[in-house]
Amino acid sequence: MPTALEEIIKQTIRDTGPMNLAHYMALCLGHPTHGYYMTRDPFGEKGDFTTAPEISQMFGELIGAWIADSWVKMGTPKKFILLECGPGRGTLMMDAMRATQNVDGFHEAVQIHLLEMSPVLRSLQAERLSQYDATWHDDLSTLPTDYPIIVIGNEFLDALPVRQLTWCETGWKEKTVNIDKNDTLCLYDVEAKNEVIEALTPFLIPPQVGEQVEVSLEQQRLLNDLINIVLKQGGILLFVDYGFVHNVAGDTIQAVKNHSYCDLLETPGEADITAHVNFSEISQIAMKKNMMVHGPVSQGEYLKRLGISIREGLLKENATKLQQRDIEAAVKRLIGEDTKNNEMGKLFKVIAFSSNSNINLAGFV
Ligand code: SAH
User: Fold this and answer.
1) C-alpha distances in Å from residue 360, one per residue of 82, 268, 298, 350, 352
2) Nearest atom, ligand 1, residue 158 CA
3) Secondary structure element (H or E) that encloses residue 4, with its range
4) Are 278 and 298 in contact (CB under 8 A)?
């Protein structure tokens, strides 16, 4: 049975021709009625995937401590915007706020803002954050313009739609979604348009014939917009995600359903789709705008430097034997380097960009 979204995608292709992968990904994740994030809570054991804040409260608590420390390093502004991009269930923000409740002046200064497209997740976030004053945004245009800002995003950039190109003897080809003879969705190469080639060029190491590269115009746009806000209002951006430190060619788009990989085209709207973040590219975007780049460092290194073992020790003091084992397992999952065993410490990276070049942010040094 084709999903309702599959029918909509096919009709769009019949009407306007093959669809680039970013357009396909954007519909799969964000179609107003059938998009993956718009219709469900995808996280946890029963969902499709688990993220760091859902593994343990320690993750959000340490990020909270990092935010408070950064706020102090920014000169303890009386008011500041704390924007989380793609807050999921709101767990990270809830843990960060709890962890900072005793930091003098912090809760009086912080204004919580959330960039979230999913109505289902917005209501979960509202539940978790009910004791705080939070404001939701569809895009960045409605953010206050008169305060410094700290932006955080965990596994947010990887959800932004990407396009895929292959270098051929005759030039760039772009991978699109089309319909085959059996009325099934299929991948199909077309001549790449200039708009996407231009977006790619500044970051590119000349590829070999047959190599694929990925580019996210949405990611570039959003990052540039956030950087412009930070440059105007003062502040810091922090992103945690999985990806490459150096430019790497290849197909990294993956669809995940029930904690397993599945075919990208099989059940549009029912699988999570993500792509590796190219940390080299996002650093170059920030450097071009004279932002100070901190990292990237591995998530394992970052959390160790923020004191995850101390937090682990404190939590274990008041825990039963069983809970102590769970805490140890969570720490291993967050900082361990065995990527094949779903350990996140090495695969995930942390990067920050600041408008102030004379600032040493915790976790990076
Ligand atoms: N940060 C959370 C969730 C990560 S999943 C965690 O670590 O658990 C990605 C999140 O980004 C979801 O909340 C999803 O709804 C949101 N999202 C994805 N694309 C978005 C977009 N274009 N605009 C706003 N939110 C988006």
Assistant:
1) 19, 44, 17, 15, 11
2) 9
3) helix 4-16
4) no
Quick check: 147 and 233 in contact, CB under 8 A?
A: yes
pLDDT attached to residue 254: 93
- The Cα 353–Cα 362 span in angstroms is 13
Separation of CA 345 and ligand 1 centre (Å)? 21
- pLDDT class of 175 with cuts at 50, 70, 90: very high
Atom number of ligand 1 nearest to Cα 115:
24
**Which residues form ligand 1's pocket by a CB distance below 6 Å?**
29-30, 37, 43, 51, 53-54, 86-88, 92, 115-118, 121, 154-156, 159
Atom 23 of ligand 1, residue of closest alpha carbon: 117
Please give the structure tokens belonging to residue 188: 């199909």
- The amino acid occupying position 18 is P
Whether residue 276 contacts residue 243, with contact meaning beta carbons closer than 8 Å, is answered with yes
Tokens 């994030």 belong to residue: 37
pLDDT of 203 strictly over 90: no
Q: Please tell me the residue having the least CA distance from ligand 1 atom 11.
A: 86
SS3 175: strand
Handedness of CA 362, 363, 364, 365 (dihedral sign): positive
CA atoms within 13 A on the CB side of 351: 27
Q: Which residue's structure tokens are 């270098």?
A: 167
Q: Note the pLDDT tens digit of each residue in 214-256.
A: 999 999 999 999 999 999 999 999 999 999 888 777 899 999 9
Tokens of 94: 């809830």
pLDDT at 47: 77
What is residue 193's DSSP assignment? P
CA 277 – CA 244 distance, rounded (Å): 6
Judged by DSSP in three states, 85 sits in: strand
Q: What are phi and psi of 72, to 5 degrees?
A: -65, -45
